[in-house]
Amino acid sequence: MEKKRRNTILVQGSILAAASLISRIIGLIYRIPLTHIIGKTGNDYYGTAYTVYNIILIISSYSLPLAVSKVVSSRMAVKEYRNVRKVFLSSLAFALISGSAGMIIVLVFADVFTSWLRTPMASPALRILAPVILIVAIVGVLRGFFQGLNTMLPSAISQIIEQIVNAVVSVVAAYFLFKYGLRAGAVLGQQKKYAASFGAAGGTLGTAAGAFSAFLFMLFMILIYKKVFNKKIRRDKTIHEETYGELFKILIFTIIPVLMSTAVYNLFSISEMFIFKNVANIQGYNAHKISVWWGVYSGEVSVLKNIPVSIAGSLAASSVPAIASSFRKGNMNDVKSEIRSATRFISLISFPCTVGLIVLAKPILAMLFHDTDLTSAWMLIIGSISIPFFCTSTLTNGLLQGINRMTEPVKNAVITLVCHAVFLLFTLLVFNLNIYAVLISLTFYGIVMSLLNRLSLQRYSRTRLDIMKTYILPLIASLIMGIFVYLIYVFLHLLISSVVIPTCIAIIGGIFIYFVAIIKIKCVTKEEFYHFPKGEKLVSLGEKLHLF
Predict the structure, then answer these.
(1) I want to staple 258 with a disulfide (CB 3.0 to 4.6 A). Which of 63, 149, 161, 500 is the partner?
(2) What is the b/e burial string over 221-258, where b = at least 16 CB atoms within 10 angstroms of the residue's CB?
(3) pTM of the model as a whole
(4) How far apart are CA 47 and CA 297, in angstroms?
(5) Quick check: helix, strand or coil at residue 475?
């Protein structure tokens, strides 16, 4: 039974993780032509608009999928189907209220927010994102409902549809609006600024179109599932049918801690932008240079860094309903097993991604963004160090919420945010590290947050991790992989002047080398592979290669 539950979590988590990975790859692919169209300055405007949008989205509705899935799964565990329906309707009401409030705030204060961040030309892009807040709030409830039913497929498919539509519309709209911006800017004598501003707005128009397509798909899924769910309701034998008032209160007390932890957890994005841009301006750096630095950070480094971090978020989303269900039933052994399994799985993903981005930083940026600037490469190298810590903190955030320790991530995030702000100011003012201070403080934030969350999780779940198998062996396997990947790239680049073919071959080779390494150093045993998604195929491949 324990193995079956662990497999279910990993399979469901892998569905969301795979969808998230596909979405991130699509996002990475479309950001390449988008960056070529709007440039590094346009990326700065685009990134600034997204930072403000994300904060408002987090405050208004970002926590809804996780909170809804938690409340739904706990009632599904005891077959209270009428209460589940009421949870769904109450959540929709909350989404409409909070999403509408977030939309109005962005529409009214867009100019204030972007001026505060010394990027006023990001205002058009931010205003286009305003209605997306309401759409995403509703989509979040629909996704959370299905995740609470322990099926991640609707959420996964909707994410992919959303990103495909987003990619197509973003590139096309950015191209035409960039051209329009050139003409409008020529009249005002600020061609480049207006072109970048309108181009960034075109990029955010794709986000709106993608969100609306996800809404249509999730609505279609709800209509299909309605008949099946109505049959369950007719067989429902709920003893205590909760009122809408009771459920709304439960939802608010579930959503607010999740909301606060997620909001504080992500406030560092806007705080680091505010601190860096204002301090850099005081220190006399050119406004164009500051914009270019931030354009690389938000449009290149963060895009690549967030691919593995998104997998942790997907695994957290799939773990919460299962852990909440086990916790409500009092099955602490299952809870501990699920925590260990999820933590180990994310370590096996995050470490090789980190090492791979570090050793191939320069060729990856050259291949994807045609960016051969050595400063950009060093930015990616330093920024990639934060990946394992952000993956761990993202995952533990969800795990703590799953065991009803809702306020722990909030307290930890507040402590970390204050430490991060002090550390960033210190590195900027004392060492004058400019954009590198942002990247170093990023890793500092991840370390503090993941450490505090891990201590809280250990305290309240009494879960002990095997440090060697969870962290040290995956790191050793990743370092072995990194050495071979670097040698493969250098050797092939001597033979082929292009960076594309050597980089792609090195990445493919790295995947195979990592697979061999984790087997040979006993990081993952043959029996443990069966617990992973497609584990039978991985074992079969290992046997054919005589690795076991």
Answers:
(1) 63
(2) bbeeeeeeeeeeeeeeeeeeebeeeebbebbeebbebb
(3) 0.78
(4) 9
(5) helix
Q: Please name the residues in contact with 522: beta carbons below 8 A apart, sequence gap of 6 or more.
A: 473
Tokens 């950009």, located at residue? 376
Rounded Cα–Cα distance for residues 33 and 282 (Å): 34
Return the structure tokens found at 38. 């709007």
Length of the chain: 548
Comparing C-alpha atoms, which of 260, 130, 277 is closest to residue 205? 130
Residue 74, amino acid: S
What is the helix, strand, coil percentage profile of the chain, to 5?
90, 0, 10
Q: Which residues 6+ apart lie within 8 Å of 536 measured at CB?
A: 530
Single-letter residue type at 321 = P
Contact 156, 132 (CB under 8 A): no
Q: In the numeric block, which tokens belong to residue 6?
A: 């662990």
Helix spans in 330-360 (H): 332-359
Q: Say if residues 419 and 340 touch (Cβ distance below 8 Å).
A: no
Q: Distance (Å, rounded) from C-alpha 199 to C-alpha 426?
A: 35
DSSP at 120: G
For residues 346 and 536, the answer to whether their CB atoms sit within 8 Å is: no
The answer to whether the CB of 233 falls within 8 A of the CB of 192 is no
Q: By the 8 A CB rule, do 312 and 395 touch? A: yes
pLDDT tens for the chain, 548 residues long, are: 444 444 455 566 567 667 777 887 888 888 889 999 999 999 999 999 988 998 888 776 667 787 788 788 878 877 888 888 888 998 899 899 989 999 999 999 999 999 998 899 999 999 999 999 999 999 999 998 998 887 878 888 999 999 999 999 999 999 999 999 999 888 777 788 899 999 999 999 999 999 999 999 999 999 998 888 888 887 776 777 788 888 778 877 777 766 676 667 567 788 899 999 999 999 999 888 999 999 999 989 998 998 888 777 766 666 666 677 778 777 888 888 888 888 888 899 899 999 999 999 999 999 999 899 999 999 999 999 999 999 999 888 888 877 878 778 888 988 999 999 999 999 999 999 999 999 999 999 999 999 999 999 999 888 888 899 999 999 999 999 999 999 999 999 999 988 999 999 999 999 999 999 999 998 988 887 776 666 788 888 888 888 87
Q: Estimate to the nearest angstrom the gap between the alpha carbon of 177 and the chain centroid.
A: 28
Contact 272, 444 (CB under 8 A): no
Burial bucket for residue 497 (CB in 10 Å: 0-12, 13-18, 19+) = exposed
What are the C-alpha distances in Å from 495 to residues 365, 486, 488? 20, 15, 11
